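Q: Could you fold this chain for me?
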Amino acid sequence: MHPDLPLSVTHEVRDRCLCLHLQRAARAVARRFDAALRPLGLTNTQYSLLVSLNRPEPPRMGDVARLLAMDRTTLTAALKPLERRRLMKSLTDPKDRRGRLLALTEDGQDLLRHAVPIWRTTQQEIDRDLSWQGTPDPRQALLALAFGVPGSEGAAGATEKPLET
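A: Sure. Below is the predicted structure, expressed as structure tokens.
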């Protein structure tokens, strides 16, 4: 321990740091969804990716990255296992040949149909666990942090609201 940095600083960060508490909560929730989705061979991140592709028209890669607060490099890496399993495919954007569109395959749609009830059950359990606190919907507070904090660029450098489709 550095003499200019007393243990009280460590305790202050442990007790007050919103970033630390959000990371810990996010990891705990992620573990819960990972466990629930494991029988389908999905992680919570893969589930979120598949759901983000469930649209009438295939979204652009950049739109999915913004929605999921991921940079494009991380998104590309996260998509590879889904492509290998033939759950989604990457298409050339006909409006911009340099761009990529992301689409669910029939196998991806089928897996998503099986995954949604598992997600719903797990989400209801988490909602029930949080309801004893008597606090407003935590999702609204998290959305405000991600997309509405003045002077902040949000999680993915985006100041706009989450994609609505």
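A (continued): The first helix runs from residue 7 to 16.
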